[in-house]
Specification:
The protein is an alpha+beta fold. The protein contains 15 helices and 28 strands. Helix content is 30%, strand content 20%. The strands form 8 sheets. Strands 1, 2, 3, 10, 25, 26, 27 and 28 form an 8-stranded antiparallel sheet that branches. Strand 21 and strand 22 form a beta hairpin. The relative contact order is 0.10.
Length: 615
Amino acid sequence: MTIIQLLIYSMIVVHFASLYKIFEKAGRPTWEGFVPVYNYFIWLKILKKPWWWLFFFIIPFVNIVITIALHVETMRLFGRYDAKETILCIVLPWYYIPELAYDKDAEIEAPTDWTKKKDREKRTLHDHITLFFMAPFIGHAILLLFKLLGAKDKEGKKSMPAEWTDALGFAIVAATIIRTFTFEAFTIPTGSMEKTMLIGDYLFVNKLKYGPKIPETPLSIPFIHNRLPGTMTQSYVEWIKNDYFRLPGYGKITRNDIMVFNWPVGDSVLLHPEVAAHDYYAFVRDGAFQKAGKMIPLLDKNGNKQYYQNGEIAKQFVPMTKEEFEKIKDQAFDKERARLAAGGGLRNIKKTQGIGRLPNDKKENYIKRCVGIAGDTLSIVNGNILIDGVTQELPEYAQYRYDFYFKLSNRTYTKSDFTDQFNIYYRDIIPDSKQQDELDIMIGHYTITCNPKFANLMKNHPAIDSIVERIHPRGVDYALEGRYYPIYPHDPSFDWSRDNFGPLFIPNKGSTIELNEKNYILYKRAITAYELHDLEKRADGFYVDGEKASHYTFESDYYWLMGDNRHGSVDSRYWGLVPDTHVVGTASFVWMSRHPEKPLFDGGIRWERIFSFVK
């Protein structure tokens, strides 16, 4: 019997074959045990629980907690507090509840009289077990702390384990509902949104605006996203899975919203203890390309990239041409996939733990700006975004990478010469030196990531000779970096770059495209990975789910997300469209901000950002 079948069987046994016997012993008509929903209403009434608990049964995870609570309360109704029975009731209710219901000796007893020592003592181990299952280790840690502070059981009142079980149960249920359907805490881990969002910002994500999603994997440890902290162990199981469904929201996704979403390419990732996940597809592309060219880039002891060929340092990196690679691409990809699947090393990662496939709601959470919405046609020209041919205004704090060329001078400029004068938007533009607090301009060249306004102001600085923006033209040769077409759609038919891209139509639900060679490349992943259809290109045309088709109609809305740190963000330019099934919510406000490299009480807390709204 599979787990799903076992769960179905348990539901039938517990709720229909047993409840009527419980009701009968409680003096209720037996027929009430067979009426769906109503029988739960009566069950709550017998246990003296609020009728509105019925609504908890439609909330993932919360329904599991409430069901376990009802099983335990039913056990207590019959005065059963044995340790073994308690564990069976919690772990194997489909066995224990029928046994209790059909036990001829089981009779409903009076509730626990906390004024009687005998009643309190017979519940001691039972209450400790239920507290452990409600909050493993944490519950008893809190209990021990309060006892060390002098707290004691009060005469005639519930014992502390019983009190803490109820309190933690309520807290977990309330927090789960809030986290699932309203607001969820999120941390900015990377600089892709600098300086709009800073590394170390702690913010709340508003799920109500777009409508909260019903969790697709409801059986999971609460308050943990996808892996147990410090391990690669999943925090969820997929015994029960829900289809994508979103509750109504009070607003719509609009262009320039800062959005939190599930990482689209997270369906296949390389897991490694040092990072959350790696893009499997990018690793296969780059690894196959490097392997085919027999050129492997590594970092030397000084942190410089050094290329090796057949185990020896290469005098010059001459990668295989794109044309040559195309001839052996399938063979190279297959070899690289096999190597990764076997857990082989890749670049400076010595060992991976294999390929993991994550459900949509368990993919890594990312935050970017929504620059293109469903129905838009997006282009990028010299770093500027165009929607339907109209240039879009740059976000206030957006950044690009610039090459600053300094005039040779005998003078050494301090950091204040650069930052104090132009500190309107920026902090830490020129990084601190570990050896000295001065920037030696004699080097002549420095690469700075900053806002265009700042770059324009700096052009007039007496130390600056010239400033050049690092714009990647169409057809830029990423092969020199050992990368094989990193820009979406990762195909040599397209000469797109991070700064010169498109035009690309962003599909909306109900829109139809012609199935041709170009669209097949652009939208294959959306059709196959997100809308779960088979799409094949054959000699006589294109086939969708085995049937020949000349057009395709999309079933979802899609979005295009980019980081405000335009030259320091891995975003839709690298992995493509984001379907509405992956949208989590919109960034609301920052409740805490901490500089990751400064002491907590020495500039570590960014007081000016606390309780600031995101825009």
